[in-house]
Design goal:
Blueprint: H1 3-26, H2 33-55, H3 57-64, H4 68-92, H5 98-105, H6 108-120, H7 128-142, H8 148-177, H9 181-203, H10 208-213, H11 215-239, H12 242-250, H13 252-263, H14 270-298
Helix pairs in contact: 1-11, 1-12, 1-13, 2-9, 2-11, 4-8, 4-9, 5-8, 5-13, 6-8, 7-14, 9-11, 12-14
C-alpha cells in the first residue's frame, strides 16, 4: 500500500472511530457495555475474517513461522489492551458525554512517548511536557468537576487512554515483523469479543431480544469500527510514521464532538470548547515539534 493510501486509511479510520462514539452511546439502552462489546467485536471478526482468508491465506503460515512465539505474545497483549481500552471507554459513556469521552481518549497520543520512555528508555522530545500541561488544562475546562457522575466517567476515559497507548505501541511492534493486517485485525477482534462475553455471563444479563433492539448501533460499531477501522489502523501505521498518524488519529475527538452535536444535540459550552482546543493543541504540539526540529537540523 502506498503512502497516500495509508494517509487515506488513517483519515477514514479516524472518521469511523469518531462517529462510532454515537453508536456506542446509543447502543446501551437495553444491554450492558460487556454485552455490547462482545457482540460488536464478534461482528467485527466476522466482517474481516473472510477477506483475511481470501487475501492472506497463502502467507499466514509463512508469516507466523517467522517468529511464532512473538506473534502469539503480541496478539495476546494487543487483545488484552484493546479489550481494556474499549470496555473502560464503553463504561465511561454511561456517565459522561460523547465529546468528553472522545477528547479525553485522544490523550493517549502524548502518553505514547512517555510510556516508551518508562519501558524502553526512549527519551521523549521536550514538547511532551507542555503538551501534557495543555491536556491537563483542557481536561479541567472540558470536565464538570462539580458533577461526581461526570467526573467518574471522565476519569475512566483518561484511564482507557493508557490502554489505547499500549495498544498503539504493540501494534507498531507487530507491523515491524509481520505482514498480516487483515488476519491480525480479525484475531484481535475475536479476543476482545471472547473476553467480553465471558465476563458478561457473570456480570450482566445477556438477552438476545435486547441485543436485537440495539442491532443498528452494534452493526455500525461492529463492522465499521470493530472490523474495518482497526484494520485500517494497521495499514496506516505500516506505511506512515508515528507522528503524522497520531495527529490524524487525534482528530477522532473533533469528528465525535461534531457528530454528537448534530445527532444527539450535545452542545458544548464556551469553556468546554476551549478545553477541546487545549487538548487538541497539546496533542498536535507533541507531534509537530519533533518534526520541526528535524526539518531545521536538515537545513
Amino acid at each position: 500500500m502506498s503512502k497516500p493510501m495509508s494517509l487515506l486509511s488513517a483519515f477514514l479510520c479516524t472518521f469511523i472511530w469518531g462517529t462510532t462514539f454515537i453508536a456506542q452511546d446509543t447502543g446501551m439502552d437495553t444491554i450492558g457495555p460487556l454485552t455490547f462489546n462482545g457482540t460488536r467485536f464478534f461482528i467485527g471478526f466476522l466482517s474481516i475474517i473472510p477477506f483475511a482468508l481470501i487475501f492472506e491465506k497463502k502467507k499466514i503460515a509463512k508469516e507466523i513461522n517467522i517468529n511464532r512465539k512473538l506473534f502469539f505474545k503480541l496478539l495476546f497483549w494487543v487483545g488484552i489492551f484493546l479489550f481494556l481500552g474499549t470496555y473502560i471507554q464503553q463504561t465511561a459513556l454511561l456517565y459522561t458525554d460523547v465529546a468528553n469521552a472522545s477528547f479525553f481518549t485522544i490523550f493517549y497520543v502524548p502518553m505514547v512517548p512517555i510510556i516508551l520512555f518508562l519501558f524502553y528508555s526512549k527519551l521523549p522530545h521536550w514538547s511532551i511536557w507542555p503538551s501534557v500541561l495543555f491536556c491537563i488544562v483542557g481536561i479541567y475546562l472540558l470536565s464538570d468537576f462539580s458533577n461526581a457522575t461526570v467526573r467518574l466517567g471522565d476519569s475512566l476515559v483518561i484511564l482507557c487512554a493508557l490502554f489505547w497507548s499500549l495498544h498503539i505501541i504493540f501494534i507498531g511492534n507487530f507491523i515491524k515483523v509481520f505482514d498480516l493486517p487483515l488476519f491480525f485485525g480479525a484475531l484481535q477482534a475475536l479476543i476482545v469479543s471472547f473476553i467480553s462475553f465471558i465476563l458478561a455471563i457473570y456480570f450482566e444479563t445477556i438477552t438476545f431480544a435486547n441485543i436485537l433492539n440495539e442491532y443498528t448501533s452494534i452493526i455500525y460499531a461492529g463492522i465499521l469500527s470493530g472490523g474495518i477501522a482497526f484494520t485500517l489502523q494497521i495499514y496506516a501505521q505500516k506505511n506512515i510514521s508515528a507522528a503524522p498518524a497520531a495527529i490524524i488519529f487525534s482528530l477522532e475527538g473533533v469528528f465525535a464532538a461534531a457528530a454528537a452535536w448534530i445527532i444527539l444535540d450535545q452542545i458544548l459550552g464556551l469553556n468546554n470548547m476551549i478545553g477541546c482546543i487545549f487538548i487538541l493543541g497539546g496533542v498536535i504540539l507533541s507531534q509537530i515539534a519533533p518534526i520541526y526540529k528535524k526539518t531545521i537540523n536538515k537545513l
